[in-house]
TrEMBL record:
Domain of life: Bacteria
Protein keywords: Glycosidase, Hydrolase
EC number(s) recorded for this UniProt protein: 3.2.1.52
One biological process term in Gene Ontology: peptidoglycan turnover
GO terms for MF: beta-N-acetylhexosaminidase activity
UniProt protein name: beta-N-acetylhexosaminidase
Catalytically driven reaction(s): Hydrolysis of terminal non-reducing N-acetyl-D-hexosamine residues in N-acetyl-beta-D-hexosaminides
Pfam families in UniProt: Glyco_hydro_3
Length: 275
């Protein structure tokens, strides 16, 4: 997430060293542009999603072709972008969102996905099923959203488009959606991950949580197990040992045959998306 990279040469060496140990490892980075930038040497780093949207689809295509090329040159396989949340008034997502219009965001998604595919970069639609109506920052607290079904359908539209266009990963959000599952954040909800995303939207790619270290989940016990049992394939946890080891130890208590089946599922899905 930026803390272990400083410039292009150092990053390229780091990624080479990692892949020399495990050649088929998936190396990812958070590179949206604007306020979320890890590669400072990206020449479009200062452009937020909102600023890009103001320039139009052709400029978005050019920016993301250049960014995809840069990601490939630096050894990355996966980018945690694009943000497909709708940029509603007072949303904490702010200019990380391209637009408040679902159709416009869906069109942007298609352009970005196409650009990234040209350089074999996997993309991640986030934050399902939409954080654009949240006014509280999930890095700090757990938002509880009571969204009418017609508005929820609007929030989901860009994700549905991303799925139809063969997008590879979807990131689940740390917010409670009372009309969908009043008891669990989306990232820990079987109803939202396994039923809504998998069954209703027919998503057959990889589901990854948002960072499980975030403040939204601070008061939730067994969050790693709950995230896995909800149906997520990858649990994103941005921290160092011993906290990471604690998370691994928690998951290791699960039934071994279940863990083997989940690992096999992830392997199948990775092959399916071309990694």
């Amino acid at each position: 997430m930026g803390g272990n990279i400083s410039d292009a040469l150092q990053t390229q060496k780091l990624v080479r060293d990692i892949k020399s140990i495990k050649p088929n490892i998936l190396v990812a980075i958070d590179q949206e542009g604007g306020s979320v930038v890890r590669m400072k040497w990206d020449k479009f780093a200062s452009l937020s999603a909102r600023k890009m949207a103001e320039k139009g689809l052709e400029d978005i295509r050019i920016v993301h072709l250049e960014r995809a090329k840069l990601l490939q040159e630096n050894g990355f396989d996966l980018v945690f972008a694009p943000v497909l949340d709708l940029g509603m008034e007072n949303s904490w997502i702010k200019d990380r969102a391209f637009s408040e219009d679902a159709e416009e965001v869906a069109q942007v998604s298609e352009v970005i996905l196409s650009a990234m595919k040209q350089y074999s970069i996997l993309t991640t639609a986030k934050h399902f099923p939409g954080l654009g109506r949240a006014v509280e920052d999930t890095h700090e607290v757990l938002p509880v959203l009571n969204i009418p079904r017609n508005e929820q359908d609007e929030d989901i539209q860009p994700f549905s488009s991303f799925i139809k266009n063969k997008g590879e990963l979807v990131m689940t959000s740390h917010a409670v959606y009372q009309q969908l599952d009043s008891d669990n954040p989306a990232s820990l909800s079987k109803r939202i991950v396994s039923e809504m995303l998998r069954e209703d939207l027919k998503f057959d790619g990889i589901v990854i949580t948002d960072d499980l270290r975030m403040g939204a989940l601070n008061k939730i016990d067994n969050k790693f197990i709950k995230a896995l049992e909800a149906g997520n394939n990858i649990l994103l946890y941005i921290d160092y040992l011993p906290k990471t080891q604690k998370a691994i130890d928690e998951i290791a208590k699960l039934d071994k045959s279940y863990l083997y089946d989940r690992a096999s599922e992830l392997e199948r899905r990775l092959i399916q998306v071309g990694h």
